User: Fold these one by one.
Assistant:
Number 1:
Amino acid sequence: MEEKQLYTVTVFTENQVGLLNQISIIFTRRSLNIESLSVSASSIPGVHKFVITCVSDRRSMEKVIMQIQKRIDVLRAFLYTDDEIVYQEVALYKVPTYRLLDEKNLEVILRQHNARILEINREYTVIEKTGHGEETEALFEELKRYDIRQFVRSGRVAVTKSPVEYLTLWLEEQDRRQSQMV
Amino acid sequence: MSEKITGAEALVRALIAEDVDTVFGYPGGYIIPVYDRLYDYTDQLRHILVRHEQGATHAAQGYARVSGRTGVVIATSGPAATNLVTGLSDAMMDSTPMVVITGQAPAGMLGTDSFQETDVIGITQPVTKWSYQIRRAEDVPWAVARAFYIASTGRPGPVVLDFAKDAQTALLDWKYEKCRYIRSYHPYPAPDPDDLASVAAMIDASSRPMILAGHGVMISGAEKELAALAEKAGIPVAATLLGLSSIPSDHPLYKGMLGMHGNIGPNVNTNRADLLIAVGMRFDDRVTGDVAHYAPEARIVHIDIDASEFGKNVHTDATIHADAREALAALLPLVAEKSHPEWLAEFDRPERVERDAVMDVELHRTSGPMTMGEVVAAVSEATGHRGVLVTDVGQNQMMSARYFRYTDPRSIITSGGLGTMGFGLPAAIGAKLAAPERTVTFFTGDGGLQMTIQELGTIMQYGVGVKIILLNNDFLGNVRQWQELFFKSRFSQTPMVNPDFVKIASAYGISAERVSDRSELGAAVDRMLAHDGAYLLDVAIDPTDMVFPMTPAGAHVDDIMLSRTEKYQLK
Ligand SMILES: Cc1ncc(C[n+]2csc(CCOP(=O)(O)OP(=O)(O)O)c2C)c(N)n1
């Protein structure tokens, strides 16, 4: 068996309903657990971007990519390991304000973790941290003693390190293909 | 000046614009507007009223597979739509072009559990190439054009259009344009010249090559190109179940069928070959057996239009991502003329062993009850090997695939990937309607026939001249075989108490007779074929008859049983 590791899959699609389901069933059928998922409009008008993380081996993930790419209205799907991308997650921590009031170190903790206060009122304080999973986790550990009421972490967002924008090139190729049709 | 018409009218006009002449269907509440419009187009669009929506899907599959055209189904929402799921899965597995239109609750009521609302898109997405809900009348031309383009191009497959009731009655400006381009979809990949060159070099360097011909050969119409390449480079050809009839059975280079109940020669020589050239097939586990011990000496070349098949089940050494016909035609001038007499001779011994130890036993009995094989051989012979074979699933399927002989392409219609009992009767109806000039012979078991037996009503209503040969062993024979071989003959829930099938056929106005004696078989087959119209021949079959050779599930391809007690000896 090949070694398992965390992979990041990015999928670019047309703006059509039902694609999330089509993509997710490809994982479910192979009993692959999606670790995180984020969906948003991409920088290209009309193109949506999915970022999915999943722990598996490369061969299985390559097959998943082929299956995703086969779905109509999926433009392209790419497979990455962490060293090939720049990625971040956002975490929010909601803490009762009174627990923080006489904490002298709070400023230091926030600075050390590169976190910031988003909102503060008499009842609660919301702290935000952007970073890798381990980093948001570390701050969680640190804030635990202030009695965290809510903690939420977003799916991963990622851009590639490659100097070549494969999607853009591919889209240009499709435009040429279309113009050759008529 | 544009013309305002309803969504339902647009659907019917779009079907006609896509050259559809036959649709299989069943009406209901949320599709009545479409049926109302069909009423005005009966001269251009023939609607076949089946007796169950599953039957409509299989009939459309039979229609599509014999003709290469897209099969069309219309049904209502809810229970009708769920009845279609088996046929959709079957068509997805066996790459069959099909456009299925379902009625749906009005768009505004979706999500409220309104009467006969069901999540058709959610249910069908995993088993279709594309499924789309039409919620606005103005989307009808675009959606139908796209549906036909997607279903029929690339690797064909089923498409669902879920048509909301209010979109059927709303108005749109009529204008139709066929779809020829979808940005995200590439149905015509051009073979890469480097891939072609390296595959040609591998063929030239090989001394024990074998071609594995799959369904893709016929889908792409590559029968001539296949034979030409095989002949020029002297390569023996084996076929998958769905690849049967892609090369005539009597072609000197044709070496038989692959798979669990295939011929011994191609199966054992898979593990002797130094090169396998797979064309439009997908290395199904029924073909490979244990993949870890599959083709240990061979380099594997895979030619397919669906790139996701490459490396899916077996490792490949080279691939050509293209339409099979284009790929084979492009390879032909690149390969050297060659012959491999010694390699071809390696098929002789397994062929002889199979003839003596398996076929003779099956085909040439002189006493005792009849076997399936002898009935199939008699029917094939009587049609001059020119008929279309439609099968159900089980022993009847394997026996008819094995003992039928094929002269023309597109001569076998069978449920391969899904193995759907009940597929055969409606598929035979569809095949006969698409190819009225051909003799359609349908072999079935007593179990499978009863799964869609209500379609005898369709045969009656439209006078469809299907020849039904019921290989009647009063058992779920295929399961019985496994129980005898692997479960100590504990025949759990496989004996069947059957009705009088001749009476049932007669009630539908279909001529029928029962044959229990070998000496009467030939004359009965002749009467069946001479009869103008549908016919049911109920043949009493030895329930202990088994399909051999057999490679047990998960065994090595060359680990082959010749009978209950004997194994094929490799040396
Ligand atoms: C819809 C469906 N249900 C169950 C099966 C499992 N199955 C495969 S073959 C078989 C027995 C078929 O019996 P019969 O139709 O009498 O044909 P025979 O094998 O005797 O030729 C069964 C139950 C199946 N393939 N399809």
Number 2:
Amino acid sequence: MLLAAALLGASACTPVTPLDESKLPVLEEIASQIDQDRLMGTVADLVAEHKSEKPFDCELLGPNTSVYPELCNLTHEKAGEYMQRRLEQLDLPVRREVVAKDLLTVSNVIAEYKGVKYPEEVILISAHFDVYYAAADDNSTGVAAVLELARVLSQYKFDRTLRFVGFDLEELGYVGSHRYVESLGSSKEVVLTVNFDSLGYYNDTPGSQQTSLGLPAPSEANFLAVIGNDNSLERVNEFMALNESFDTMRTFGVVASGLGNNPGNAPLLRSDHGPFWLRGHEAVFISDTAYFRNPGYHNEKDTMDLLNPPMFRKAVQLSAAAIAYWAGVQP
Amino acid sequence: MKRALLPVLAPALVALGLVPAVSRAEDAQPAAASTPVHQFSVYSRGGVQAYLAPNRSTGLFGGSVGVRDIIQDRFILQADVGYLMNFGNVVPVQVAAGMQHRIGFYTPAALATLTGFFGERLSFLSSDHPSVNRIPPVALGLLLAPARFTVEGAQLSILEFGVGVSPEFPGVGVAYQLNLIDVGVSF
Ligand SMILES: [Zn+2]
């Protein structure tokens, strides 16, 4: 019987998830509107905002600061204000969700674009706006992606509501997203979270992608990772299938087992989708894999010159198509 | 050198309660006439067991319990089931057949193994493997027990090494096994 199972394995890699092909033309049109200059302009603005801010008072964090010097180089307030301003310019209702608890106060940025058919079902599109040093990749690229997606997607109509969220204090342990998920309680309104963290670093050199035991990946750091858990497996499949339809860029899917809380999954939990996974929500994490490739990860070398603008645009284009598909874009 | 281990090993087995304290090395020398055709034992092992392929990873730390039959003091048939964790919660099922070679207490063994990994896993999707393979991997492999000792039907083996392969179409996955300890008691 075991042998039969092994032989069955031969045919177990079934074709990619079938897509609703009638949606593909409008998805392609949406993706084409993602603008590279706007994306990079936003990253430049965010880097400037971070550079002009006095870093977070790391004395609050105790003795760890000598081991982790980046803790004394965290900025977030001006980037949060910038994100709020940009979303307001799109005429979207924007609010700040402020939660003061223990030593840390977080102020998440939340904007909403109502769905027309199932407005009570929300697709949450997020990135953290707090960074170490004036980090271009981690995570000004993620915030720029959310803002560009808000600009483009708000020109269309969707069945479901789109909620654009900037999470605060991710770097200190997913504090903003954790408190946000707590505030949802047992509500099932957020049907999917799409979280962006580091989207702009790519390298074609063989060996440029780091891996770890049990976490293989292509050798060249030139792919976009889409990461889900068992709950969001179908979304990962659809993301891969959309990429196959549009042939946008090399994409690598990772699906963590269960909720994603097994020890071997730990590197996959390291952004704001984590609290959503652990509470049983569907969430996908879209990333260039950050510390598995970027030499500027959490240090002063995370600068704009390390970014690859055309690849960054492709990552956002593919994400735009996927989000529009999941939200039920109207023709 | 191997026989030099015996004075160390015999007290260890006694301490583990696997042989009576009165047992002496000389007593354990097999007598062909008194060796039963089938000698059944239950065994338990612990260590590392993982299956790593380009499209999935599963297992890692844990242990198994099983039943072993040693036939004519030479051939080994065994089957076990266990629990592994790290890349998900996994139930490994292994059946194995092989041989032991007896030099007094010292009974090194080699076994052919068939190992299935049932349960959770990490999956990786690429153009080669565009969707999750839900069929559990079953690896055909070899397990070596170079430091295995038998005293009056009780077996103690340390540092067993195993490797196996399973097809993934395209590519193969490799099953790795490192048993830190395997203890069996006859019944
Ligand atoms: Zn980040």
